[in-house]
Amino acid sequence: MTTVLAPVDGAVVPLSAVPDPVFSQAMVGPGAAIDPPRRPGRALAPIAGRLVKLHPHAYVVVGGDGRGVLVHLGIDTVQLKGAGFELLATEGEMVRAGQPVVAWDPGMVEAGGRSPLCPVVALDATSGAVGPVAEGEVRAGDELFQWTETGPDRSRDV
Predict the structure, then answer these.
(1) Looking at the annotation, which residues are catalytic?
(2) pTM of the predicted model, to two decimals?
(3) Domain covering 2-153: architecture
(4) Distance between CA 54 and CA 61 in Å, rounded?
């Protein structure tokens, strides 16, 4: 079992509420989303492991058990080309759960006409693989959900 932490403060919402079918239809995996406060903040590593992908708007951490967790900071934020985001870690780096990875401003994302919702996804897991999911407000570093099934072996990517 893997405990997945909330990468940001905010209100937990179901993935189905995310205005992007890749997330709302759980095409890349199940999880939850967080509606963050509209102020500058830091996004944390949801699990301990290797930061295998790092973009200003999204990152993936793969744990020693091969499970990968995607954090996506807002929707369509790739279009911002890094504006409003600051990398606090390096791709390939080993991170601890709760370590700051990216600084960003959800208010700026929303002011630009994009959703600041943050999907947190158990990559390639089956629909019943996560739960229970936290409800209500969470703080960055709080437990967001448990990943209970064995995922694909990504240890070769670590």
Answers:
(1) 72
(2) 0.92
(3) Distorted Sandwich (2.70)
(4) 9
